[in-house]
Design goal:
two-stranded antiparallel ribbon, globular, single chain, 2 domains, alpha/beta, Rossmann fold, 237 residues, 12% strand, Arc Repressor Mutant, subunit A
């Protein structure tokens, strides 16, 4: 386990010494016990240093002193949702524009996932998710991917509308490509997609290239973002 060298501030934040920050993950959550327990658990799972902050202001102040971190986990719920979206917009227009942000949420809905992605989040983790799965989701985002919880995007799982792969995808998507779209929205790797739908991994790559072409997307992350925008249109109908 990697042990982080932390400094505790007067507002309860725990940030890292400069030498520990090259691959740091920051947790921003006003609930002290929750964020510190999560930090200890993720530090053991990911073998990466974790710093915790009660709010975006404390984190921003730390970034002025130290180099930027590798990823931010930002808690969002009910009354602070608007502040989270403001923070995401601020990050996307600042020197931290390339910094991936994953939203943590206690009671997520399809709409909250879509809104978070539209505001620039690269992932969405419900706090009811198993630690093992959450760790894998963070690893995926650190590697440049995008994670959306599968149980929210499964057929018939939304409150606002029935958003299936077929209703999300352009009309010229084939049945197989609709399966690929559903898997991409759930953050699955090529290997897992191949296993789930019974194809060779090379065939999965072929279908993904076709999906990217039809969406005019350069990579998987851009494809998921475009698909989330289509979902938003479906929800508004």
């Amino acid at each position: 386990m990697t042990k982080a060298l932390t400094r505790t501030g007067e507002n309860g934040e725990k940030d890292l010494a400069p030498s520990s920050q090259s691959h740091m993950i920051a947790i921003i959550d006003p609930r002290t016990l929750i964020r510190e327990c999560l930090a200890l658990s993720l530090q053991e799972k990911l073998a990466l240093p974790i710093a915790t902050y009660p709010d975006i202001t404390s984190w921003s102040a730390a970034q002025e002193r130290f180099s930027a971190c590798a990823l931010v986990l930002l808690w969002m719920e009910g009354e602070n949702a608007a502040r989270c979206y403001d923070a995401l917009r601020e990050l996307s227009s600042s020197r931290h524009a390339c910094l991936p942000v994953i939203i943590l949420c206690d009671n997520p809905s399809m709409q909250s996932v879509v809104d978070a992605l539209r505001h620039g989040a690269k992932g969405f983790i419900p706090t009811g998710m198993a630690l093992e799965v959450a760790s894998e989701a963070i690893g995926l985002v650190l590697a440049g991917g995008c994670f959306v919880p599968a149980h929210i995007l499964d057929l018939g799982e939304t409150d606002d509308a029935d958003v299936s792969a077929q209703s999300v995808a352009p009309k010229d998507f084939t049945t197989r490509e609709n399966q690929i779209v559903a898997a991409l929205l759930k953050g699955k790797s090529n290997k897992v997609i191949a296993y789930d739908i019974g194809l060779a991994e090379s065939s999965v790559k072929y279908h993904i290239r076709s999906v990217l072409r039809k969406l005019h997307a350069r990579n998987r992350t851009e494809a998921v973002t475009k698909l989330s925008e289509i979902i938003t249109i479906s929800l508004s109908k």
